[in-house]
Amino acid sequence: MPAFVDRKPVVFLKKRVQLMESVNDKAYGLIHYDFQTDNVFWRKKTGQLSVIDFDDSMYHWFAMDIAAALADQLEDENPEGEAQLQAFVRGYRSVRPME
Q1: Could you tell me if residue 37 is inside a domain?
Q2: Is residue 42 part of a domain?
Q3: DSSP summary character for residue 80
Q4: Most distant CA atoms of the chain, gap in Å
Q5: Is a pLDDT exceeding 60 seen at residue 33?
Q6: How far is CA 96 from each of CA 45, 90, 99, rounded to the nearest angstrom?
Q7: What's the structural domain count of the chain?
Q8: How much is the pTM?
Q9: For 45-82, how does the pLDDT look when each residue is reduced to its tens digit (9 = 90+)?
Q10: Which residue, 5, 25, 28, 56, shows the most beta carbons closer than 10 Å to its own?
């Protein structure tokens, strides 16, 4: 590489490539990115949840969907907010461990 070329961007990009290569499919992948209560519907009759509004979906850390859902619950002044938060965490842990 010529001496006049700034090496900082090259080093930065190499580090980013190394980071992305180290990512595994258990932590990173396609997420909803707007996973909040107003995008989840419960059908009491069937006991089924439905999720809508996938237009913000992207590849990101799975934890981002958890953060969005929990932030929504924490901002909620509803007295049921704590119970909903605990139910979310229990449900999530039933599918995938949280570390």
Answers
A1: yes
A2: yes
A3: T
A4: 70
A5: yes
A6: 27, 10, 10
A7: 1
A8: 0.58
A9: 999 989 999 999 999 888 898 888 888 777 767 777 77
A10: 28
